[in-house]
Amino acid sequence: MDLETFTPTMIYENKDGYNVAAISNNKNILALSKTVNTNDSDLFLFDRTTKVITKINLTLSGNSAADFSIDDTDFYYTTDAEGEFATLMKYTISTNETEKVLAKDWDISGSYFTNNGKYRVTYINEDAKNVIEVFDVAEGRNITLPNVNGKSITSVGFSRDENMMRFYAGGSDAPSNLYVYDLATQKQTQLTDVLNKEINPNDLVEAKVIRYPSFDGVTIPAIYYLPHQASKDNKVPALVWVHGGPGGQSRQNFNSRIQYLVNHGYAVLAVNNRGSSGYGKTFFTMDDLNHGEKDLQDCVEGKNWLANQSEIDAEKIGIIGGSYGGYMTMAALTYTPEEFAVGVNIYGVTNWMRTLKSIPSWWESFREALYKELGDPYSADSVRLKRISPLFHTDKVTKPLMVLQGAKDPRVLQVESDEIVAGVKKNGVPVEYVLFDDEGHGFVKKENQIEANSKILQFLDTYLKKEEPIKNDDL
After folding, report:
1. DSSP 306
2. In the chain, how many H helices and how many E strands?
3. 98: number of CA atoms within 13 Å, CB side?
């Protein structure tokens, strides 16, 4: 669009479900990606001057655009074509040749050049934790990043003259703060202090990564939070936490809801069940077309791992999750009804056929990929989708359930939660339903977050910890 006349000009008409993934510095080349399945995508370069589209990847694999070189002669992207994890590649536009630039034992999740090309910044997903490398291109080495009391630097950005760096630093036990760093003097200045002043930082718990074998020998990674007061003489209740997705990942970031629950005496095991991202493409595809089955067993084995810890009350272990994790919560209460003492379902799918048929139009480029992973509801897959949909098996639920839902959720419709609540109530099982009229897929308003967390804690104290609720006249 011409900014003086506001006259638009058609550059490219997208008729094939592409996404614009990167734009060259001279604005002449667009990097386009096309989703094939939930792991794999094709990459293309569209030249605005010649109108030619060139496919970059030679094989079907997980490909993602990174950046163009400053002079626009090279295009950088990540791919897992040569192994389990994504590597950084360079594609020379004039010759169509590719070259491996960087490989790690984990996924390289992104890379970009600073304003004048002095540095290349690369993000690595190392065991559910962001690791950042800043590579000095001229000197051919990584620079040393500042130390912030042992906290992890999770994001960086550079000034246009490349003399100053801003960065965020935090950890599983500390929300990230913003800093500015002078690369010449090595002086760092903290700009924010986001932790609520009423919270003692020493009360927060640092997570640790653990691993346990699942039912079939597959190793499952998980992130473990243990309350400070927990011991073999003071056993605490626990929760298996299941991330969203499918294909998400619980990471070693600060999670206020988890810290809130841990602070009130609940251990939390955030399970990265098979199908989670970050642990190689084989692990990522292990749950394809068997959701609610083997990945659910990974969660049950997580419960068993908790039950074997000396600090955990083995009789008081529940399950909690949001979105796909909410589905896993309902699957656990439905298909393994005696394994978990309670369940907290946060806007979780309960009827896969309805959810897959109601994918919003702006997800169209991803719809086919979801059908390939989960199943096509308009095909014979519908038999299995109905079998793994908790809504049709609510009579099996025997343990207390809490459901939280946003009325404006476009992904998991309110009817999903309405119907699962009505179905479970028929069993005479305790059910609590928290509906927010002004929320969508995820609760973004602070007052609603506070109410949701408070209601979850009250539910867990009543049905998992089994404490008598505090009465007003006791305050």
Report:
1. H
2. 9, 24
3. 16
Instruction: Note every long-range contact of 226-235, with CB atoms under 8 Å and residues 24 or more positions apart, other chains counting.
Output: 226/262, 226/267, 226/311, 227/262, 227/263, 227/265, 227/266, 227/267, 228/203, 229/265, 230/265, 230/267, 230/311, 230/312, 231/310, 231/311, 232/310, 232/311, 234/311, 235/310, 235/311, 235/312, 235/313
* Residues paired with residue 165 on neighbouring β-strands, in sequence order: 158, 181
Amino acid of residue 378:
Y
Q: Is 176 a catalytic residue?
A: no
Residue 304 CB coordination number (10 Å): 16
Q: Which of 64, 109, 176, 323 is catalytic?
A: 323
Average pLDDT, the chain: 94
Decide if 441 is catalytic.
yes
Q: For residue range 15-61, what is the model confidence (pLDDT) as tens digits?
A: 888 999 999 999 999 999 999 888 899 999 999 999 999 999 989 99
Strand, coil or helix: 357: helix
472 pLDDT more than 50: no
| CA–CA distance, 135 with 138 (Å, rounded to integer) | 9
67 is known as an active-site residue: no
Q: Tokens for 429, please give them.
A: 């099982």
Both tokens assigned to 114: 């600073």
Distance linking the first and last C-alpha atoms of the chain:
63
pLDDT for 305 beyond 80: yes
The pLDDT of 283-297, averaged and rounded, is 92
Annotated catalytic residue, options 155, 358, 382, 441? 441
By percentage, how much of the chain surpasses pLDDT 90? 87
Q: Is the link from the previous residue into 213 a cis peptide, with omega within 30 of 0?
A: no
The Cα 133–Cα 120 span in angstroms is 8
pLDDT of residue 211: 98
Q: How many Cα atoms within 13 Å fall on the side-chain side of residue 218?
A: 23
Strands 267-271 vs 53-55: parallel, antiparallel or unpaired: unpaired
State the Cα–Cα distance between residues 370 and 362, nearest whole angstrom: 14
Structural tokens at position 236 = 């605490």
pLDDT in tens, 100-147: 999 999 999 999 999 999 999 999 999 999 999 999 999 999 999 999
The pLDDT value recorded for residue 367 is: 84
pTM of the model: 0.93
User: Of 80, 173, 295, 409, which one is the catalytic site residue?
Assistant: 409
Mean pLDDT of 409-415: 89
* CA distances (Å), origin 435, targets 267, 358, 369, 413, 432: 26, 21, 30, 12, 10
